[in-house]
């Protein structure tokens, strides 16, 4: 049984006196979360970390490309974060964290319902994974000096671990996009550019599976919000219509931040290198970035569109996508 705590060497991280403020993006993938996170990362005092739940596999183990274009272990930001919080993390300790995360993912329904786990091995998994995440976020805060850290993981169980800790102030922004557009996007074949030694593609979901996942993610996001410091829901379609208004809504819990959004001019933003560990390939883009509607889902077949609508209509109605 994996009962031993994760060992540390050169351990310099210590629990901060004030909670670490984490802005957690919830919802279904392909809803515009990477684009929104990229723009949030341009706000002074905000550090966009990407989909943090993948950092153990894609960063620590895989050494995949950071959003800045450098491999994870040679990125100046992440190399400092790793040293600050973990020193030299052995393969055994990393494997333990990965196994504990898998257990946490399987417990998502129990956790979101607020039920006690009542299982010693599960309790150990929660404690180990939470400890690793707290070290990680505390180290990001110390290394970057960020006031707010954006985590676009979207997985509710990952967010729950953060919400359950008094060392984290978790603010949830729930990003929703029309289920038909999301399902269409998941059918596209997209290469993962962060893997450079071979050709690897992002997973694809058939329309019924994408619709089911969309419903589950959007139903569970408000449950996570009940346990967070704050919860806000924004629509992707509203964001592309008025990016400034949506970003200011998202930043409302942080009155101490500069919300002038000087990097944004109408529907065009100027973005710099971001140190995101995972996300949509748009995270590698730098320079001028146009924010425009993605209308390609209009080419979706009538059959697929009808199927996704039938599977998700209650939530489509709730969010205003159906008359």
Verbal overview:
The chain has a five-stranded parallel β-sheet with strand order 2-3-1-4-5, sandwiched between helices. The protein has a three-stranded antiparallel β-sheet with strand order 6-7-8, with no helix packed on it. It is globular. The model is unreliable at 3-13 (pLDDT under 50). The longest helix has 25 residues, at 120-144. The chain has helices spanning 33-40, 55-61, 76-85, 91-106, 108-112, 120-144, 156-163, 179-185, 207-226, 236-241, 243-250, 302-319, and strands spanning 20-27, 46-48, 148-154, 168-176, 230-235, 264-265, 268-271, 287-290. A hairpin with a 2-residue loop joins strand 6 (264-265) and strand 7 (268-271). The relative contact order is 0.21. The protein has one domain (20-319): Rossmann fold (3-Layer(aba) Sandwich), CATH 3.40.50. With 323 residues, the chain is α/β, with parallel strands linked by helices.
Give a brief outline of the structure.
The protein has 323 residues and is of the alpha/beta class.
What descriptive keywords fit this protein?
disordered N terminus, 12 helices, 5-stranded parallel sheet, Rossmann fold, 8 strands, 3-stranded antiparallel sheet, single chain, alpha/beta, 323 residues
């Amino acid at each position: 049984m994996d009962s031993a705590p994760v060992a540390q060497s050169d351990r310099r991280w210590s629990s901060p006196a004030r909670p670490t403020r984490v802005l957690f993006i919830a919802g279904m993938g392909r809803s515009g979360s990477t684009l929104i996170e990229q723009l949030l990362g341009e706000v002074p005092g905000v550090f966009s970390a990407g989909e943090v739940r993948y950092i153990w596999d894609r960063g620590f183990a895989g050494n995949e490309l950071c959003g800045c274009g450098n491999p994870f272990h040679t990125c100046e930001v992440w190399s400092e974060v790793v040293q600050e919080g973990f020193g030299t993390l052995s393969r055994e300790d990393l494997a333990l964290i990965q196994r504990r995360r898998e257990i946490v993912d399987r417990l998502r329904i129990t956790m979101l319902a607020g039920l006690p786990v009542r299982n010693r091995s599960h309790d150990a998994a929660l404690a180990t994974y939470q400890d690793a995440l707290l070290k990680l976020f505390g180290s990001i805060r110390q290394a970057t000096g960020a006031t707010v850290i954006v985590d676009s993981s979207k997985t509710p169980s990952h967010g729950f671990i953060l919400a359950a800790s008094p060392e984290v102030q978790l603010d949830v922004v729930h990003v929703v996009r029309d289920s038909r557009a999301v399902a269409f996007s998941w059918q596209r074949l997209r290469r993962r550019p962060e893997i450079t030694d071979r050709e690897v593609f992002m997973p694809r979901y058939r329309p019924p599976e994408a619709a089911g996942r969309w419903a589950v993610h959007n139903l569970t996001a408000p449950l996570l919000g009940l346990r967070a410091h704050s919860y806000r829901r924004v629509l992707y379609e509203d964001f592309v219509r008025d990016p400034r208004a949506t970003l200011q809504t998202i930043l409302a819990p942080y009155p101490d931040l500069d919300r002038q959004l000087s990097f944004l001019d109408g529907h065009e933003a100027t973005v710099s290198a971001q140190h995101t560990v995972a996300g949509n390939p748009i995270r590698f883009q730098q320079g001028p970035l146009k924010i425009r509607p993605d209308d390609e889902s209009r080419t979706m077949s009538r059959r697929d569109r009808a199927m996704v609508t039938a599977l998700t209509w209650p939530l489509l109605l709730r969010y205003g996508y159906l008359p």
